[in-house]
Amino acid sequence: MSGHRLRIGGRIDRDRPLGFRFEGRSLVGFAGDTLASALLASGVSIVGRSFKYHRPRGLFAAGPEEPNAIIQLGPRPDLKATQVLLEEGLEAGPVNCWPGSRFDAGAAIGLAKRFLPAGFYYKTFKWPDWNWWEPLIRRAAGLGRVDPTASAPEGQRRSLHCDVLVIGAGPAGMAAALAAGAAGLRVVLAEQDRLLGGSLLVDRGEIDGMPSDQWLERAEATLAARRETTILRRTTVLGCYDHGLVAAVERERIVWKIRAARVVVATGAIERPIAFQDDDRPGVMLAGAVRAYLNRWAAAAGRRLVLFTNNDEAYRTAIDWRQAGLDVAAIVDARRSTEGALPDAARAAGIRIVTNATLDRALGRGRVRGVVLRDGTGKTSHIDCDTVAVSGGRDPAVALFVQAGGKLAWQDQIAAFVPGDGGYTTPVGAAAGLFGLGSALAHGHAAGLAGQTVPDILPPAAEDAAQGTILALWHAGGDPARSWVDRASDVTVADVGMAAGEGYVSVEHYKRYTTSGMSPDQGKSSGVLALSLLGRATGRVQADVGTTRFRPPWDPVPISALVGADRGQRLRPVLHLAAHDRHAALGAAFEEYGGWMRPACYPAPGEGREAAIRREAAAVRAGVGLFDASPLGKIDVRGPDAGRFLDRMYIHRLSTLKPGRLRYTLAANEAGIVQDDGVVARLGPDRFLVGTTSGGAVRMAEAFEEWLQCEWVDLEVFVTPVTQQWGVVNLAGPQARALLAAAGTDIELETAAFPHMTFREGLVAGISARVSRVSFTGELSYEVAVPAGRTAELWDALTAAAGPAGIAPPVPFGIEALMVLRIEKGYLHVGADTDGTTYPADCGFGDVVAKRTDDFVGRRSMRRPDAVRDGRLQLVGLLPEAADAKLAAGAHIVAADEGSDGHVSSACWSPALGRSVGLAMIRNGRARLDETVTVDDLGRRLRARIVRPVFVDPDGTRLK
């Protein structure tokens, strides 16, 4: 043996050495190694630190149940070393330690361990204030570090449909896939490992009269040759969902959505430990993991082994260890006597077996150096060793079965929860509690056929090794405060008892209080141990304790895989204006608003953003400005029942609207909450053009379709979103009418012929257009809608028409200036002045709702006691007492008891008034006009007067 690597054996390619670095150390492994097996073979004992107390941690398991070896791989945090395939040049390191795993300054917290039991944060940090402690706790929290600048590989999404999905390619899974394929069914076999075989990769046996390795090779070749069989290697099934949907991720990059007529769960079983004092020392490992590293990767966990067990299966580890030429100090068996093939084989190999004994504690600091054994009489003795293999039995991996609706039952014969009734999956083999090789093969074969009779197809034949009884043992002895249950989260046997004593007897409450099972391994090896200890502490049997919920995903999955190709523009496409290039040429500063890239403002060279916004707003009030309003939602609603339909969708009656007229209205959801607003135009007897907010265009169109397709199927209405078909240029300001006339139009523009809140159709600058008299600025405004492709042409024509007509050039203005203008006028902005609690009456539309006697969406909710109670927040204006004081959106109105009486919803510096103004949602605001209140903005306070929410042109004369 060189180091901890056996000279022969293992499923590694010794002709392909791979250099890698761990925590700055240069090491060498082989192709076929995992990072964990390469570290073990290199003699690395400490691979990380625990989360809470920063105790040294060594490898504990060999698969996804590993709680200790959580590593950082470049920019990728919190990976399990047992699941990372070794590659040339790989660089990794432990997480949650500084400056390193061998010496971690954070371990000093262990000195305060007695003050930091489970749930300590619920009972401490009350002085001086939680806000003082919270930043410290947040900095201490977490494991690995996320690199926000790193780019993850792009994932993919794929779908599969099959007759039989087999999850797991161990003996039972292989038998199921072979049988289903032989029956002519479409089969998908998903295996999380890179190799098929499961336990056959570790344990030797005989199947169909041949060595298990040879049988496995033939079985794999048979499956690969079948066209109707798909093998997914390195594929972890994440969860089983409703209606038979199974999600899986392949190579951490491809997410599969699989629909199968039948799902066979062959996920095997997970070994669990037995707790004893200081059992978290590096070198204490699961017996099955010691055997897996030895046989599959030719890596010895140490040189002198003590095996501690309560069952026969673990004897395989000691036997294989001895056959590898290594020293077995003793097998410590908690049972009074041991009979059977495996104990007999151990005796034949000359291995010392101590029955009716347990381990009291492990010795050593950086690594286990020995154990203290306690026999049935209470006498203790010391055994030197550098490796302790522990086995407390095996728990069927039932997470997917439960996710699919299955129920569990406790089985005393194996001291574990096993699948019971329910669900749409069929557990087989070890996943069903059948641990014998022959039983697993026969069980899988039967599940693959599902009752079909296929001539000449027989189950693979193998013998079940005789198994003795298991002794249910959870805590062997020693100090409960130093006997570990969840190694990752530092949960001890004492913590379990304390949680039970404090009333956390529900498994879900216990889990969250102690954080047991909430680390990256999700308690795969410690779950049943913890629940059994909870049962012991509360005087309940395991069946009465139950289990926690097995939520997907079964194993951590990279977010990049779930995202797939949906990132950036492919996730949330940002739309561009048809005249985007024209605005860019004008120097627009673009920002995203409602899914559109729009000009926020048009700063001149050397001009700041705030100065540009004020200049634009003042120019609109004094002359004329141009604004691109194309993103405002536009939905064409037509049909004989269009009017009736819109009456039900909005708070105003729109069926009474005459052709050629406009009406502003609000839309509410079923809870009565304001969700959108807009201006509706009646284009004809059976046709309306419904305006929405920019961000609400898609949402409202989908709402229309949902109500028509699901509720009001009797209405003959056709809904067509047309937002992107139209470009809209808004002319706003006292000179708007003159500019529009100068551009050339056949529409009569005088107020008598074309009043506010009407629209006309005709030619503008030679372009067919629909012109609407509607304003969001408080100024005389014309919205000119033309085909989207001619928006820039219209903009240019309007700009060019000013000079010859003796009009000052129109000033382009952006969203921010528009917001200033609408705040000055007191116009509502849904989403800024409203939130998820705002009813129409809160923002001044109570009379409209009260006049409606027919039903519409949200009407019933608007009449509930909470909607009409005294003390609701109402939209009002705020004017600071000091002329130079500035209001800020989000600032709170201070109540008499120093609580909140409301908040500032919108605020700006008004160029028209030369001071700050704002809109606010204030408790009983409309009844408190002229009252002076205190406004608090993150500790900065000012006095302001509640006024009507109109600061400019309260009579509306400028609109005419």
Secondary structure layout:
Blueprint: E1 13-22, E2 25-31, H1 35-41, E3 48-49, E4 56-57, E5 70-73, E6 76-80, E7 90-94, H2 130-140, E8 156-167, H3 171-182, E9 187-190, E10 206-207, E11 210-211, H4 212-225, E12 229-232, E13 235-240, E14 245-250, E15 254-265, E16 269-271, E17 275-276, E18 284-286, H5 287-296, E19 304-309, H6 315-323, E20 327-333, H7 341-348, E21 353-355, E22 357-363, E23 370-375, E24 380-384, E25 387-391, E26 394-396, H8 399-403, E27 408-411, E28 416-419, E29 425-427, H9 437-449, E30 475-477, E31 484-486, E32 491-492, H10 493-501, H11 507-514, H12 527-538, H13 542-545, H14 559-563, E33 575-576, H15 580-585, E34 589-593, E35 596-601, H16 609-622, E36 625-628, E37 633-638, H17 642-649, E38 662-668, E39 674-684, E40 687-692, H18 697-710, E41 718-721, E42 726-732, H19 736-743, E43 759-764, E44 767-772, E45 781-787, H20 791-802, E46 811-812, H21 815-825, H22 846-851, H23 859-862, H24 865-868, E47 873-880, E48 892-894, E49 900-910, E50 915-923, E51 932-937, E52 940-947
Parallel strand pairs: 1-7, 8-9, 8-15, 9-12, 15-29, 17-30, 18-25, 19-20, 19-25, 20-21, 33-35, 36-46
Antiparallel strand pairs: 1-2, 3-4, 5-6, 5-7, 10-11, 13-14, 14-15, 16-26, 22-23, 23-24, 27-28, 31-32, 34-35, 36-42, 37-40, 37-41, 38-39, 39-40, 42-45, 43-44, 44-45, 47-50, 47-52, 48-49, 48-51, 49-50, 51-52
Helix pairs in contact: 3-4, 3-9, 5-6, 6-7, 10-12, 16-21, 19-20
Family: Belongs to the GcvT family.
Domain FAD/NAD(P)-binding: 163-414
Protein name: Sarcosine oxidase subunit alpha
